[in-house]
Amino acid sequence: MFGSLAVGLFGAGAVLGQTLLDTLPRLDDAQTVAENALWLETPLQRQFQRSKQVTIAELTGPAVITMIHFALPERMIAQPDQYRLGRELLLRMYWDGEPTPSVDCPLVDFFCDPDGQRDRLQNALVNKKRGWNAYFPMPFRKSARIELVYDGPLPPGRELWRSMPCYSYVIAQRLPSLPEDVGYFHAQWRQQLLNLGKEDYVALEAGGRGKCIGWNVTVRLPGRGGYPVDENEQLYIDGQETPAVEFQGIEDAFGFSWGFPPEENLFPLTGYFPFHKEGAAAYRFFLQDAIRFQRSLKITIGFGEKEDPQFRKQFGKPGNELEFSSTVYWYQTEPHAPFPPMPPAERRRPRDGKDSQKLPSPEALEKQGVKLHFRCGPPEGESVFVVGQEGVQSRQSRRP
Fold first, then answer.
1. What is the pTM of this model?
2. What total of structural domains would you count in the chain?
3. Which residues, at least 6 apart from 123, have a Cβ–Cβ distance to it below 8 Å?
4. Model confidence band, residue 65 (pLDDT cutoffs 50, 70, 90)
5. Residue 364 backbone phi and psi in degrees, to 5
6. Quick one: which of 95, 153, 321, 370 is 20 to 30 A from 3 by CA?
7. Do residues 360 and 400 make contact, with C-beta atoms less than 8 angstroms apart?
8. Rounded-to-integer distance, Cα 76 and Cα 257, Å
9. Is 356 part of a structural domain of the chain?
10. How far is Cα 49 from Cα 51, in angstroms, rounded to an integer?
11. What is the DSSP letter of 183?
């Protein structure tokens, strides 16, 4: 399926709609090229020994990238119960010398592996098992630069190298030319904690001409089990005030119904699996039904206009904030609209509660001038209310 996408759209002399098997015997003018990085045999500037930012591939066009591979970090093999790669490593891609990346995403989330918590995953375009592999066709006309950026606490050197993917390769097909109507590949990650009863979660605001080909999403109620599935997924095309496409129910948008199933299901174009302490993760690819736009595309998640008002009321209250994250994949003309700033690594992790600080002791509260204090709630989410010199205050914490 993904093979026909690459060959049918970009292969020299190929006809749109041909299958991969149809084009395999064709002898065309494409030239296969590949670049290695990160492993000890590659130059030091392509390892994490000296820098937290490493360029893993620089290619000249016209060409189309057909596969990207990352091997697991050494530490994940040597210490599987003690370490895993999370969202501290960013994947960025630049086309034709552009100043800002067209792909800006935690590496693990790019591969439908939110926060790196999966051992195995497989669908039509990405997979993971002792390595991450992607098969999105990524065309460019002049140049392509792919880089990894680590913004965690480790300094460059041996320990950082052991903690990062230990090897990568990028395969591309260099072509005589690209059709004028071929767009550039984009991917953007976002995460937000919000009261969905008061505002919608915005997964994408793109500007230009293009088409959306898929996304992956997580939803959680941090610090508590469960989550609603009555949110609608809304796609606003070319500035429309009402969505041109609206899926009624988040599980239906990803191919399921009556809530997500209790067990994971990984299909070629749709899939679901439990995520991080009773949350949900799902992916959906629009290959035959890509969402096309001429000027702009906005994708949101929120309760529908005619949905039962109880959902807006319940999830509009303090303490009922939902945490969403998403990675959207699309093609478009350049330049693209500015991406939101990427939060620092410590803010990209899934939240486990409102406040992870330790509750103060009675002695410490007395030293702070507290006149009265009382505690309530279960031990794992206990709140302390205090009356001090500035009036009533409250704090919530999860005990260590």
1. 0.85
2. 3
3. 112, 266, 267, 268, 269, 271, 283, 285
4. very high
5. -65, -40
6. 95
7. no
8. 36
9. no
10. 6
11. P
